[in-house]
Amino acid sequence: MEITQEELKARLMQTNEEFRRLALKHDEYKRRVMELEAIPHPSEEERQEEIRLKKLKLHIKDQMAEIMARYTVQAVS
After folding, report:
1. Would you say 35 and 54 are in contact if contact means Cβ atoms under 8 Å apart?
2. Does the structure show a pLDDT above 70 at 76?
3. Alpha carbon distance 27, 53 (integer Å)
4. What phi and psi, each to the nearest 5 degrees, are found at residue 40?
5. Number of independent structural domains in the chain
6. What residues make up the domain containing 18?
7. CA-CA distance, 70 to 50, in Å (whole number)?
8. Residue pLDDT, tens place only, 29-64
9. What is the pLDDT of residue 1?
10. Rounded Cα distance, 13 and 7, in Å
11. Are residues 50 and 37 in contact, defined by beta-carbon separation less than 8 angstroms?
């Protein structure tokens, strides 16, 4: 029986502290990026913060994908 990505994420949120911590941090960065994107005329500092947060979000997303891949491999083994 194959598990969907959303089911896997939900399971990892419940069972994996590292995944949960990363997901919460990703959501925090996502909210802040949305706030920054909503600013009509952002300052240079705000633009730089947005760029930095987007990079951090991508890095966290990669880490989460790695955890999901490891979990999938373990479940298949």
Report:
1. no
2. no
3. 11
4. -60, -40
5. 1
6. 5-76
7. 30
8. 999 999 999 999 999 999 999 999 999 999 999 999
9. 60
10. 10
11. yes
